[in-house]
Amino acid sequence: MSGIPSNERRRPDRAALVIAPVLFAIAALIWWDAGRLAEMSNYSRIGPATVPHVVAIGLALLAVWTGFEAWRGDFPEREPIEVKPVVFIVAGLAGQMLLLKTAGFSIATGALFALTAFGFGRRKLWISLPIGIAFSFVVYIIFGRFLQLSLPAGPLEHLFF
Q: What are the transmembrane regions (predicted)?
């Protein structure tokens, strides 16, 4: 047969067997939504629905591939998940969403940067918070001022602009 003793063969990966249909469902949703875009513009074969259709096809292929590999058990063993970094990153995202309207883009995104850095092991929040705010302020200047995109302004942005 395959030369691998039966006691060393891996079982199907249950997590990947769940991920495969989810990927396929997302691909179907994108395909359906892109079909609505195609109805709006009939004048050209290449239009606003072309790229979403390509993305949907790619996701469907990945879903089939993931299901096949999961059934064969070919995925490598996963390392245990460390919950603490995930909690800090999610807390940073939640903090950014909560602070965005009141504190503005730079401060909210700087807090996200600091909490993400803390989750990845950078324990000096008093250094990473101002660095994150400074980087976010530069991003605000580039996108909000130079490219004229609408980003929420807070006290820091109002101080300079």
A: 15-34, 46-68, 88-118, 125-143
Q: What is the 3-state secondary structure (H, E, C) of the chain?
A: CCCCCCCCCCCCCHHHHHHHHHHHHHHHHHHHHHHHHHHHCCCCCCCCCHHHHHHHHHHHHHHHHHHHHHHHCCCCCCCCCCHHHHHHHHHHHHHHHHHHHHHCHHHHHHHHHHHHHHHCCCCCHHHHHHHHHHHHHHHHHHHHHHCCCCCCCCHHHHHHC
Residue whose token pair is 């003793």: 5
Residue 113: C-alpha distances to residues 39, 49, 95, 109, 122 (Å): 41, 35, 11, 6, 11
- The whole-number mean pLDDT for each consecutive block of 10 residues of the chain, a chain of 161 residues, reads 54 88 96 78 69 94 93 82 92 95 94 94 90 95 90 90 84
pLDDT of res. 3? 52
